[in-house]
Amino acid sequence: MHCPCGRGAYAHCCGPLHAGAPAPDAEALMRSRYSAYALGLADYLLATWHPSTRPDGLDLHSDPPLRWLGLEVRRHVPAGGTAVVEFVARHRQGGGRAGRLHETSRFVHERQQWFYVDGDMTPD
């Protein structure tokens, strides 16, 4: 199976992270989170969200369903125990027009793993 994040085979890309392997850097974590959204893995998303900003739950189901179409990482800026990743994720809901989510996300490295903290959305 091709990995939703666009970096090759799922078994060698985001699959190991979804199975519990730690992300080597914030970009890898962000890619694995995109793939988790595409695959409906809410538990993984919550587990990789920093406890200080994590919601109580996530409902990834919508009607009509949201389909993730592709990911472009624009920059990854590591800074010691923190990092910033800017990305654009394309999606489509039902038969509607494709949309874009453009976000600059903040990550922190704690307890030997990376966590998503929050992000700023850029309007299209």
Automatic annotation (TrEMBL):
One Pfam family in the UniProt entry: YchJ_M-like
InterPro entries: NTF2-like_dom_sf, YchJ-like, YchJ-like_M
Record-linked Gene3D superfamilies: 3.10.450.50
Stretches assigned to the YchJ-like middle NTF2-like domain: 25-119
Record family assignment: Belongs to the UPF0225 family.
Name the UniProt record assigns to this protein: UPF0225 protein E1B00_14935
Organism: Arenimonas terrae
Lineage, top ranks: Bacteria, Pseudomonadati, Pseudomonadota, Gammaproteobacteria, Lysobacterales
